[in-house]
Amino acid sequence: MAEFEIECRNLVKKFGGFTAVNSISFGVKKGEIFGFLGPNGCGKSTTIRMVCGLIIPTSGQVFVSGKDATLEAEAIRQRIGYMSQKFSLYDDLTVEENLEFFAGIYGLRGQIRRKRMDEVMDMNDLQSVRQILVAGLSTGLRQRLALSASILHSPEILILDEPTSGVDPLSRRRLWNLINEITTQGATVLVTTHAMDEAEHCHRVTMMQSGQLVCTGSPAELRSSQIKGQVFSVDCASLFQALNIASKIPGVIDASVMGSRLHLRVLDLSLQQVQSALIKEGISVASIDLGEATLEDVFVAVAGVAT
């Protein structure tokens, strides 16, 4: 039995003189949610399309359920559900008609087709809009419909490319709840995102920058292994003036605004030293506390090393 449901080995994709994916290797274990993280344009979607067999690698190999994605692309497509970054359903058809169309593509017939359509509409709370044209749906409903279409045939592997792009916070939470529910039913999920907070929903993540992977592990492992020093959270007046000042304090590795507080990553500095430095520059500090590193901190740290 293969160790990984999805495995990429030294994968390269070039478009002319541009290298979009530069010799990457990773594996996704059965039953896990694996997050593929990085900024727009870093090569995530290109990698996903190679995994799905939609484009051919320049070099390297992709295996899905032990099958070579280049040589056995058609067989692999029957085992995976793919939700593309760009909404790919039909605006001039209803919700039900779109699902009917994709059920036909997947070879679902008769009572099995009807039963499965009802199941995915129930799961994604689409029964009330089943006769509505897709053109009239909100972005959140469109994404739920796209997810429904991708799981109609009960795939063993679900590949989601930026599934929450453009949706509101409540719709995003609902989509992640659905993704978690799908994995409890035994599916393996590979999901791309540029929203670092979404990675907390994943069992493991890998971070990509400029076509290369820079680190892989569980969110907790990455926070503990990739972050040097400590994180301070500062409640202060004149927030953006304070940000400019704090970024120049020797020993402050990174400074950002998080909500209504300063978020500082520091090396060999105490809370008192940072507070004193800010007060010296005229910044009133209400409180300063130890904070927690985020996956955004991890990405800033490792991307800086990578570049």
Write the topology of this structure:
Elements: E1 6-15, E2 18-28, E3 33-37, H1 44-51, E4 59-64, E5 67-68, H2 73-77, E6 80-83, H3 95-105, H4 110-123, H5 139-150, E7 157-161, H6 169-184, E8 188-193, E9 204-209, E10 212-217, H7 219-226, E11 230-236, H8 239-246, E12 252-258, E13 261-266, H9 271-280, E14 285-290, H10 295-306
Parallel strand pairs: 3-8, 3-9, 6-7, 7-8
Antiparallel strand pairs: 1-2, 1-4, 4-5, 9-10, 11-13, 11-14, 12-13
Helix pairs in contact: 3-5, 7-10
Task: Give a written overview of the molecule.
With 307 residues, the protein is an alpha/beta fold. The chain has two domains: 6-223, P-loop containing nucleotide triphosphate hydrolases (Rossmann fold, 3-Layer(aba) Sandwich), CATH 3.40.50.300; 227-306, Alpha-Beta Plaits (2-Layer Sandwich), CATH 3.30.70.100. The protein has ten helices and 14 strands. It has helices spanning 44-51, 73-77, 95-105, 110-123, 139-150, 169-184, 219-226, 239-246, 271-280, 295-306, and strands spanning 6-15, 18-28, 33-37, 59-64, 67-68, 80-83, 157-161, 188-193, 204-209, 212-217, 230-236, 252-258, 261-266, 285-290. A six-stranded mixed sheet has the order 6-7-8-3-9-10, sandwiched between helices. A four-stranded antiparallel sheet has the order 2-1-4-5. Strands 12-13-11-14 form a four-stranded antiparallel sheet, covered by helices on one side. Strand 7 (157-161), helix 6 and strand 8 (188-193) form a beta-alpha-beta unit. The longest helix is centred in the middle third of the chain and has 16 residues, at 169-184. The two termini are 38 Å apart.
